[in-house]
Structures are given as structure tokens and as C-alpha cells.
């Protein structure tokens, strides 16, 4: 079973994302900030990371820059999940090592579509 780490300082966002991603057949872990997410990744690297940009302790940009330097940190598909959609913010995230972008608010169809787009799931998998 593939694994996904949901990183967001909002418990509500984590719970909604968990429900959607579990329906796609993933084991889901959660972290409330980038520092906690790094600890989780260093213990067991996930296949995918759904990552918020703005969080206390360590933000999403700093997290992904650090992750990509760690052994095995180049492997997870990192999907940024944020309200910021301006070109400089997107460019900064992509340069830091993010693979894809999802805008908040999101729904099951958007998450499923992005997971298919980056090759995490096949076309036949449907969110429930």
C-alpha cells in the first residue's frame, strides 16, 4: 500500500485530506508543521506528501528544501496545497522541489486528478 503524509497546521484540512486520500487506497499519516513532517519522513519516507505552504515552526518551502537534501528525500511526490496562486509563489515552490500544486479549497475530484497526473494512481481508481 502506498503512503501519503498530509502536512497542514489546520486539523480540519488534515482530516478532509486524509479521508480523500485514504479513499484512493493510501495509508495516511499527518503532521502539523514542517519540522514534525521531517521527523516523520526521516522515520519512514512516504510515497507522496500533500504539503501546506504557510505553517508555524517550519513552512512548506523550508520543509521541501530540507527534505530534498535528505537521503531518499528526492523520492516522494510533493504536492503543494495552498491558497497562494501567484506566479512568484508557484515558481518559488517548484524551484524548492515541489512536483505539483493544488489550490485550496480542494475536493476529492481535484486530489484524485492531481494524484493521477503525477502517476501516484491509475485512471481506474475513484475517490469514494
UniProtKB/TrEMBL annotation:
Residues 3-119 form the Response regulatory domain. PROSITE patterns: RESPONSE_REGULATORY. Pfam families: Response_reg. The keyword Phosphoprotein applies. The modification 4-aspartylphosphate is found at residue 52. Keywords: Phosphoprotein. This is Response regulator. It comes from Hyphobacterium lacteum.
